[in-house]
Amino acid sequence: MTADLTASPAFREAMARFPSGVTIVTTVDEEGRQRGFTASSFCSVSMDPQLVLVCLATGAECHDGFERADTWLIHIAGMEHEAIVRRFAIRGADKFAGNDFTPHASGLPHLADAPVVLECRAHARYPGGDHTILVGEVVSVGLGDRAPVVYYDRTFTPARVAGRN
Predict the structure, then answer these.
(1) What is the CA radius of gyration of the chain?
(2) Beta-bridge mates of residue 78
(3) Contacts of 152 (CB under 8 A, 6+ apart)
(4) Residue numbers of the domain that contains 47
């Protein structure tokens, strides 16, 4: 069955059927305000140098902060972070409500129990339609012992990782 590729609902449905990990990206803006967003558009770009990318909607409240940020943290979320992931995806939400985040050695908001935390230094930014592609050089890696969550068909599912679940 083929769908009209110009139809936004069909494209959204197609993208929902692609399983992906989920990340929470955090920084502190020039005025010292904590900023963050949820992203499933995340991937490695290069091993040398160590580069990753994440995509941020240009209309996001935190967009200007990330446009000027020199560093950010990318947290690969676990199943236990579903409520936080959802909160960070809502425009206008108090994203840092609660005690989920503590200061990282870099001074950035840190979700300490995340399966993976990547500290990134801004490497490049590219326009990508209604998003900005943020490319970061990974300067430190934190590995936890929890499994990541997979987002598929608008549902969160624990990843089945051999020896970890």
Answers:
(1) 16
(2) 148
(3) 16, 17, 18, 19, 20
(4) 20-154
Q: What is the mean pLDDT of residues 138-152?
A: 94
Does residue 2 lie in a domain region?
no
What does DSSP say about strands 34-39 and 149-152: parallel, antiparallel, or unpaired? unpaired
Please check whether residue 86 lies inside any domain of the structure. yes
18: Cα within 13 Å, side-chain hemisphere: 9
CATH number of the domain enclosing 116 = 2.30.110.10
Per-residue tokens: 38: 């949820």
Domain count, the chain: 1
Q: What is the pLDDT of residues 14-71, one digit of tens each?
A: 988 999 999 999 999 999 999 999 999 999 999 999 999 999 999 999 999 999 999 9
In a domain, 95, yes or no: yes
Give per-residue pLDDT as tens, 79-88: 999 999 999 9
